[in-house]
Amino acid sequence: MPHKVNYEDYDYGDYYEYEDYDDYDYDVEDNGEAPTPASESKQETSKPRVWSCAICTYDNEEGISVCDICGVLRTPLVNNNSKTAGGICKDSGASIMAKSLFASLPPRTPKKAVVIQRQNDGSLMEEGNNCHKLGNTKGKFHEFHEAFSSHSRSKFNIAPFKFDVPSPDDLVSNGLHSSKTGSKGNFLDLKSSRVSSSVSEKNGSVTTRSSAKTSDIANALMPKDKQDSMDERNSLKNEVRASSRISDSSSLVMAKDRLGTIDEGNRSNHCTVDDSISSSVDGTESSSHTGNLTSNMKNMSLTAKSGNSTNVSARKTNSHTQYKPEKWMLPDKKGDRMTQLNLAIVGHVDSGKSTLSGRLLFLLGRITQKQMHKYEKEAKLQGKGSFAYAWALDESAEERERGITMTVAVAYFDSKNYHVVVLDSPGHKDFVPNMISGATQSDAAILVIDASVGSFEVGMNTAKGLTREHAQLIRSFGVDQLIVAVNKMDAVQYSKDRFDSIKVQLGTFLRSCGFKDASLTWIPLSALENQNLVTAPDDGRLLSWYKGPCLLDAIDSLRPPPREFSKPQLMPICDVLKSQHGQVSACGKLEAGALRSGLKVLVLPSGEVGTVHSIERDSQSCSIARAGDNIAVSLQGIDVSRVMSGGVLCHPDFPVAIATHLELKVLVLDFAPPILIGSQLECHIHHAKEAARIVKITSLLDTKTGKVTKKSPRCLTAKQSAIVEVALQEPVCVEEFSNCRALGRAFLRSSGRTIAVGIVTRIIEDQQ
Amino acid sequence: MRIVRKDLIPNGPGSVKMIPVDSDDLWFAYNLVAAGDSVLAVTVRKVVRQTKSGGKDAERVKLKLKIKVEALDYDKEGSALRISGKNILENEHVKIGAFHSLEIELHRPFVLTKDVWDSVALDTLHQASDSAATADLAVVLMQEGLANIFLVGRSMTITRSRIETSIPRKHGPAVARYESALNKFFDSVLHAFLKHVDFNVVRCAVIASPGFTKDQFHRYLLLEAERRQLRPIIANKSRIVIVHTSSGYKHSLREVLDASNVMNLIKETKAAQEVKVLKEFFNMLSNDPTRACYGPKHVEVAHERMAVQTLLITDDLFRNFEIATRKKYVDLVNSVKDSGGTAHIFSSMHVSGEQLGQLTGVAAILRFPLPDLEDIEM
Predict the structure, then answer these.
(1) pLDDT digits (tens, 9 = 90+) for A508-531
(2) Which of A322, B74, B83, B94 lies at a CB distance of 3.0 to 4.6 Å from A270, suitable for a disulfide?
(3) B332-346: per-residue pLDDT in tens?
(4) Whole-angstrom distance, CA of residue A661 vs CA of residue A694
(5) B247 to A438: CB separation less than 8 angstroms, yes or no
(6) Do A677 and B359 touch (CB under 8 A)?
(7) Residue B133 has pLDDT above 80, yes or no
(8) B chain contacts of residue A434, beta-carbon cutoff 8 Å
(9) A467: burial class by Cβ within 10 Å (0-12, 13-18, 19+)?
(10) Can you give the C-alpha Rg of chain B in angstroms?
């Protein structure tokens, strides 16, 4: 088609994907539950099935339960479509497909259009054809109208579903009940002139993939003029249906198109979905006196009604580009409050992480003198005087008794520039899983090194030392700013030589992990003797050679990480608390979007919707939480057992994927045992951990260039980079790394050590 | 398994009458019986008879049937083996050629007739009848918030219970909640423990976990036992062993069986040997990858060059319904043994066998390096 030239690029590129949809349609039709639309879409590729009317012997479409000519009921009745008395299954088709899309929308729309449309059909179908024919006639129409090119573009995009592109709704709204070519031409002209411009604009935005622009256009689309608005809404609604169909089917063929390339055509359609939804919501009142429009609205409610069952498994793949954040979600320019900074404190066991954190909290007034006194007394009583500061964070009896941190402790303090959330992680080998699940949310990290002779070397030891493992993990959490706190300098008399030799040894390793020299800060300090923590050191031995910043200054000089304010809400649940009143609180870092009380959120993987009751930050309630905040969200209307740590809170319309089968791009760490097909591992993804097994080693990659060097190797050994497929025992919430970084990182562990880190490149749908 | 009567020629035809006595024996039976064999057992069949008045009368009749095996179905949890096939023993109620499913149950004798009793089948039979090598071990494998209870038998591992709860992080003043959640978790594990661990059957119970969860649970177990006067636990205090593992997932069971204090208890058993051999294989693979190989193709090539020192193979492969395939693997095992190597047949019901199964089911440690194996397509 000559008028489509502009869009050929991606139309062709995505062609094979439609075949998927086609496949889907066949399946559905075979099941006998998805009626006409399927057969329509099928029309291009195969001959639709027909049934013969008992009275007039006319060959009717499979999906229709009443003869098109004489109106006699089909016997036996196959499609029990209660809604479609007229026997036109188009709308029930729409309702099926709308299931996923409209599941969470307030009900609108009706069944009337069905009947009217039936009339249209009757008048149109001299040859005794049914509704899909209508689509066809229209299809020809489009070719008459150059101005309509963009619209037919969108039609081409959704080729298998063209049944409703120019949809009878248009006819209805324009009052063209007995549609003749001329009059239809008029209305199409009218519409196309408007729609084409908007659609083509949209295309432009889609190609640039700028979501912001799309939403701008959406605003631009918001009509003032009634007639215009009606037309636009109609046309948009067509696309709503078309795209809802696509999203529906794409969810089912997710396996195939999960490749992270929901075709751009879809994307543009999705955009229109959202736009039209918002526009119709806004404009409903003002223009509802237009009778035919209301019928359209009602039509929507029909679809919404049938789609109310929230089917978790049949998830749709909404692309995030369509999401339009509300105003309150975006951060205030004035900066009413300081940015939160999630700071993980990591390092080898007994390097003084908790003591350092405790000391910082005490110096910054987060722990009162009285409390501190109490800790000191208790610690002395247990014969662990030096652990007094650590006790501020190690609160459980078990931890205090053993003198080690077991789970990640969360504490808060304010520096000059930030609200700092301290994630004090355990350093013991057995608790690395806890460290991973607790500290994945960090934006920056302090790597604590024990400077005392022998201890640093043990920490760097390849077999037992955790300094290396922690540094590699922190890097693969996505942290690129690191403060290396060389602790216990008092034990080496604040020797510059010691500090420098540590710096040289560790620096080489950190560089090999991918930390840049510029984002590393080296600070000698002593947590126990309070040197160089919040103020410049006063010990002459350190003062004599160290001129750099103190720890607190170094924290202040960290750059705030970029936040995804304008994406849909997404919060991996790190921790679940149950209050006495049976209320559930989910704790974690809000990775994207914003939350405020009253908002509905979807809890995955249980798939239930709850309402945000209140939000707490550092035990103080706050009204709005934005991306990057570490918060506790108390939820209403959901049972405690349905909220698990490792799950995710997200926008009901933008659920994250739940999968058991993933394709990962991994880097095997040093000294890891070989990874074979069938190797059993533990897989950590954000706060979730699950037993996993390597299903397939797809290819070996060159670590430098990322090119495939070998297909299906026998095994993976240390320092290799590869694409592997893993199967998880239980499903986890996960996203492809390109979509969501926080949910797209994976860590593979086996026999107590981290053997590989990587990212999720593809979510593989189970073949069942 | 009790062998009542044995009448067979090695590598020739014969029949064996046996009585399965524990659930492991059904597993052995499952491995012994192959398609094409015939099985004679007492069974119950619903027989429909025409009465004189012309009506129909159904009656359940206990009778002895001999069937030619067509399909096998093993139910691990329910301890049952169903064998279906065509009847070959003329009977007043059942015609020859009529289909029937025999259910082999514990303590019910059955007679298995095979055309060929190959070495692997004889081996299985020998193992099944050797009651000395039992290793019944109860393992509580846990980590904070997750616990699995396993029973490790002679030839299989059964997951009895899986408990999963969410345990909150310590949280400022709410640290009490962490403790209470942990206690609640221990309580549910204790319940499952009492329900599934019978000290009359198991030799010992193992509590395994990373970190200190195992010690915490052990303490909790003993305290609760004292408080609630749980006789079985108090009496068997000494039979509870604590082992360190790296995680609470099922595959860490390997580490449990590998731990020295458990190893001593189950030294002679198959499970322990399997774990040891598999570990050897992995060590070889990481230290000298050219001296270890896996996959049928690679192993076959290695065997042709007489390189196979130790052969690791799962019983899954022998259960193949194609007689030719089974024969191929039996021959492989025999010829490895003949050429001075050792062959270990792994039970696919154990963790180690499961893992080997995922590695295509067959692997080998080689006598000398074969670097060119790498280049052969798998």
Answers:
(1) 989 988 888 888 999 998 888 888
(2) A322
(3) 888 998 888 899 888
(4) 10
(5) no
(6) yes
(7) no
(8) 144
(9) buried
(10) 25
- Please provide residue B24's backbone torsions phi and psi, each rounded to the nearest 5 degrees: -60, -35
Task: Identify all chain B residues contacting A751, using CB atoms and an 8 Å cutoff.
Answer: 246, 255
A297-356 per-position pLDDT tens digit = 444 443 333 333 333 333 444 555 566 667 666 665 545 567 888 899 999 888 888 889
What residues does A630 pair with on adjacent strands? Answer: A589
Query: Using CB atoms and an 8 Å cut-off, which of residues 169-208 of chain B contact chain A?
Result: 169-172, 174-175, 177-179
Minimum Cα–Cα distance from B358: chain A residue:
A678
* A54 at interface of B, judged by CB pairs closer than 8 A: no
pLDDT tens sequence across A116-143: 444 444 444 444 444 344 444 444 444 4
* Average of per-residue pLDDT across A186-198: 42
Q: Do A409 and B169 touch (CB under 8 A)?
A: yes
Alpha-carbon torsion, ordered A136, A138, A140, A142, to 10 deg? -140
pLDDT on residue B207: 92
Q: What does the H/E/C string look like for B208-276?
A: EECCCHHHHHHHHHHHHHHHHCCHHHHHCHHHEEEEECCCCCHHHHHHHHHCHHHHHHHCCCHHHHHHH
Between residues A662 and B269, which one has the greater pLDDT? A662
- The one-letter amino acid code at A221 reads L
- Do the Cβ atoms of B175 and A395 come within 8 Å? yes
Please state whether A719 falls in left (phi above 0), alpha (psi between -120 and 50) or beta. left
d(CA A67, CA A292): 27
Q: For residue A147, what are the contacts with CB-CB under 8 A and spacing of at least 6?
A: A189, A192, A193, A196
Q: Which residues contact A143 (CB under 8 A, 6 or more apart)?
A: A1, A152
Q: Would you say residue A83 has pLDDT above 60?
A: no
| pTM, to two decimals | 0.64
Q: Say yes or no for a CB contact (<8 Å) between B168 and A575.
A: yes
Dihedral (CA of B355, B360, B362, B366) sign: negative
Residue A476 to chain B, least CA–CA distance (Å)? 21
Summarised one tens digit per residue, pLDDT across range B188-235 is 999 999 888 888 878 888 999 988 889 989 999 999 999 998 888 888
| Inter-chain residue contact A673 with B282, CB threshold 8 Å | yes
- pLDDT tens digits, B99-112: 998 888 888 899 99
The encoded tokens of residue A390 equal 């650590």
Taking an 8 Å cut-off on Cβ atoms, the answer to whether B210 and A576 are in contact is no
Q: Which chain A residue is nearest to residue B284, measuring alpha carbons? A: A674
Give the tokens for residue A144.
Answer: 């008459």
Whether residue B324 has pLDDT greater than 60:
yes
Mean pLDDT score, A629-654: 86
On chain B, the residues whose CB falls within 8 A of the CB of A438 are 169
Interface test with B, best of A466, A681, A751, A755 (most B CBs within 10 A): A751
Q: Which of B169, B244, B255 sits opposite A408 (nearest CB)?
A: B169
| pLDDT value of residue A62 | 66
Identify the pLDDT of residue B219.
92
**Are residues B177 and A644, on separate chains, in Cβ contact within 8 Å?**
no
Cβ burial of A363 (10 Å; 0-12, 13-18, 19+) is middle
Return the sign of the alpha-carbon dihedral for residues A255, A259, A262, A263.
Answer: negative
Give the DSSP letter of residue A165: S
Residues of A in contact with B162 (CB under 8 A): none
| Cα–Cα dist B210/A434, whole Å | 11
Main-chain dihedrals φ then ψ at residue B223, nearest 5 degrees: -60, -50
User: Whole-angstrom Cα distance, residue B211 to residue A290?
Assistant: 70
Return d(Cα A135, Cα A124) in angstroms, integer: 11
Percent of chain B with pLDDT over 90: 15
Between CA B320 and CA B15, with CA B326 as vertex, the angle to 5 degrees is 95
Quick one: tokens of A476?
Answer: 């693969």
SS3 A569: coil
Q: Which residues of A touch B356 (CB under 8 A)?
A: 678
